[in-house]
What we know:
Layout: E1 3-7, E2 10-13, E3 16-19, E4 22-25, E5 31-34, E6 37-42, H1 45-56, E7 75-79, E8 85-88, E9 95-96, E10 101-104, H2 106-117, H3 122-132, E11 141-144
Antiparallel strand pairs: 1-2, 1-10, 2-11, 3-4, 5-6, 6-7, 7-8, 8-9
Helix pairs in contact: 2-3
Amino acid sequence: MTIIAYKDGELASDGIGFTGGRRVRxxxxxxxxxxxxxxxxxxxxxxxHLAGVWFADGMKxxxxxxxxxxxxxxxxxxxxxxxxxxFADRRLVFTPxxxxxxxxxxxxxAFAEGAMxxxxxxxxxxxxxxxxxxxxxxxxxxxRISADQP
Length: 150
């Protein structure tokens, strides 16, 4: 499972995944930076990797073929360079969101959203969620969006 949080230009994620009923550290970050901003992925690991490669390559080619896995669907949070958050599933049809916003297991999302409502940054909210929710873990990755960053 995953917790990803975005607030005030800061995008943060945890660093674990689940496979075969086990928590495992994932070998790559859940947040990818490209010329188009930041992309964070939750859900199916293979699909998340393919979406990250597509995003890192500038979203120029047709998007990759994703698994038809309704048990572990992929969800993406794209933070555009202007700081606006956009959500998509495996169809890659992006729709705008309000901030702050989260991706992940429902209970982890609720916890992180509560922490941010109480004043925590996105990074602090992810750290607190890791400390208090079984569906999150590992190291916290924090990235900031800026219109002048490539």
